[in-house]
Design brief:
Strand content of chain A: 25-35%
Largest sheet of chain A: 5 strands, parallel
Oligomer: heterodimer
CATH class of the largest domain in chain A: Alpha Beta
Radius of gyration of chain A: 24 Å
Order of helices and strands of chain B: EEEEHEHHEE
Number of helices of chain B: 3
Helix content of chain A: 10-25%
Distance between the termini of chain B: 41 Å
Largest interface: A-B, 25 and 20 residues
Number of strands of chain B: 7
CATH architecture of the largest domain in chain A: 3-Layer(bba) Sandwich
Structural class of chain B: alpha+beta
Helix content of chain B: 10-25%
Structural class of chain A: alpha/beta
Number of strands of chain A: 23
Order of helices and strands of chain A: EEHEHEEHEEEEEEEEHEHEEEEEEEEEHH
Strand order of the largest sheet of chain B: 4-3-7-5-6
Radius of gyration of chain B: 15 Å
Number of helices of chain A: 7
Strand order of the largest sheet of chain A: 6-3-2-10-22
Number of domains of chain A: 2
Distance between the termini of chain A: 34 Å
CATH superfamily of chain B: Beta-grasp domain
CATH superfamily of the largest domain in chain A: FAD/NAD(P)-binding domain
CATH topology of chain B: Ubiquitin-like (UB roll)
Largest sheet of chain B: 5 strands, mixed
CATH class of chain B: Alpha Beta
Shape of chain B: globular
């Protein structure tokens, strides 16, 4: 059990800046994110796209913004828990017990949800039967590639993950690559390689096809694919891999008893607390009259939520407002001599 | 064209009628102002079935619609990247578009779009 002042859910720009503000006022925090890297939507959706509305920064990319925020919170040495997702929140006295999917446990008076539009999860196959094999023979990521040795593997998708795995696995497995159109969005060199492998009959390439059904008694045996015109084909498969990119799902947040408005969480605008004491929501996921889904709004919300956290983390202390330009305490926290 | 008598100015308030058809068949016909996108038309009129998680920056695929056959070819062509995003949509087909990339104009008056079963 890790004891801390605040658990921040979401390592996007809003969560990162909230962490900065917590550090400034002398609180500790732990940051959990479902992705394997820091930066949230900025990194996952548009790392190279320029952003033009960060105050005092005329232009920067999502990646630059993220790197600067990481740099800004470095002095506080906060822990990141990546590739992990907060699954459960339970109330115990004046604290929240926070449990993650990987089994980590935190005890904290404050939880700040900076979850954007939810957590990124792989888009799954829409066929009902695929669920039966989910995690066993229908997979959306690869942890151990040795399981595919000498097996038939059907790979769906047109991006780099699909192409790279098709190329890699074709060395030791019978690979079929299925994509809904003729063009691939993967790197040109990979697309070229796939075409060569297909010409040499090392992989079976099916374009303009999508999944129709997966079949098998106990274990997966074959899949059926269909073209838009309605033609269907049966392919033998021991494994099916789907690489359709990531979608954003509210996920377990919906089960914590918070008031919800569609996919957002209503908050007050004084400290961005939700209907639950000690649970705050900031950034794209929070809702209040006049809410703008801008990064700069997330920064403001994070600063105020941090002060809200102080009240519960230091119930016997009075919060004192200080400027970073003038306060020696803050300079100490930032490690400035 | 409507003339505004108070300020002695004239402004053009051109609208196009867009029909949004939910997966269950329920139809919504709304007037959408020229210059907005088909996605914005749905959001502003609280029409269910279009999520638009990324807010129209072509970074997600949750404003996916199917365009009625006879309309598909009349729409401005897809720009680079739209098909890549559509690969990540729920059940895309050859009549799929991201509604955030369809700009409303006089030419689109009468357009019908069908919503997929779900966006995510």
């Amino acid at each position: 059990m890790i004891k801390t002042d605040v658990v921040i859910i979401g390592a996007g720009p809003t969560g990162l800046f909230c962490a900065h503000q917590l550090g400034i006022i002398g609180l500790k925090c732990e940051i959990v994110d479902n992705l394997n890297k820091v930066g949230g939507q900025c990194i996952e959706l548009y790392p190279d796209k320029p952003i033009y509305d960060i105050p005092a920064v005329p232009e920067c990319t999502g990646e630059e913004l993220t790197n600067n925020l990481i740099e800004q919170i470095k002095p506080f040495k906060f822990n990141f828990h990546l590739n992990d997702r907060v699954q459960e929140l339970t109330n115990k006295d004046d604290n929240w017990i926070v449990k993650t999917t990987s089994g980590k446990k935190f005890q904290t008076p404050n939880v700040v949800i900076a979850g954007g539009v939810g957590s990124f999860e792989p888009r799954k196959f829409s066929t009902k039967n695929a669920e039966k094999f989910d995690g066993t023979s229908v997979l959306y990521s690869i942890k151990d590639k040795t399981i595919f040795k000498d097996k038939s593997v059907a790979i769906f998708g047109g991006g780099d993950s699909a192409l790279d795995w098709a190329i890699e696995l074709s060395n030791s497995s019978k690979v079929s690559l299925i994509h809904r159109r003729d063009e691939f969005r993967g790197a040109p060199a990979s697309v070229q390689k796939i075409k060569e492998l297909s010409d040499k009959n090392i992989i079976n390439l099916f374009t303009k096809y999508s999944i129709k059904d997966v079949k098998g008694n106990g274990s997966l045996e074959e899949i059926e694919i269909k073209s838009e015109k309605g033609e269907s084909k049966i392919i033998k498969a021991d494994y099916v891999l789907g690489f359709f990119g990531l979608i954003m799902q509210l996920g377990p947040i919906a089960e914590w008893g918070l008031n919800l408005d569609k996919k957002t969480i209503p908050v007050n605008t004084e400290n961005f607390e939700t209907n639950k004491k000690g649970i705050f929501a900031i950034g794209d996921i929070c809702a209040y009259p006049g809410k703008l889904k801008l990064i700069l709004s997330g920064f403001h919300e994070g600063a105020l939520a941090a002060r809200g956290c102080f009240k519960y983390a230091r119930p016997n202390e009075k919060y004192r407002f200080e400027f970073t330009t003038a306060s020696n305490t803050i300079k100490d926290r930032l490690g400035i001599k | 064209m409507i003339t505004c008598p108070i300020f002695f100015c004239a402004y053009i308030k051109a609208m196009a009628k867009i029909k949004y058809i939910e997966y269950n068949g329920k139809e919504h016909v709304v007037e959408v102002q020229n210059g907005l996108t088909v996605m914005e038309g749905a959001i502003q009129n609280d029409i269910p079935g279009i999520d638009a998680d990324c807010g129209g920056s072509m970074s997600c695929a949750t404003c996916h619609v199917y365009v009625k056959e006879d309309w598909y070819d009349k729409l401005p062509k897809k720009e680079m990247g739209e098909d890549d995003m559509l690969d990540q949509a729920y059940e895309p087909n050859s009549k799929s578009r991201l509604s955030c990339q369809i700009m409303v104009s006089d030419d689109l008056d009468g357009l019908s779009v069908y919503m997929p079963e779900k966006q995510v």
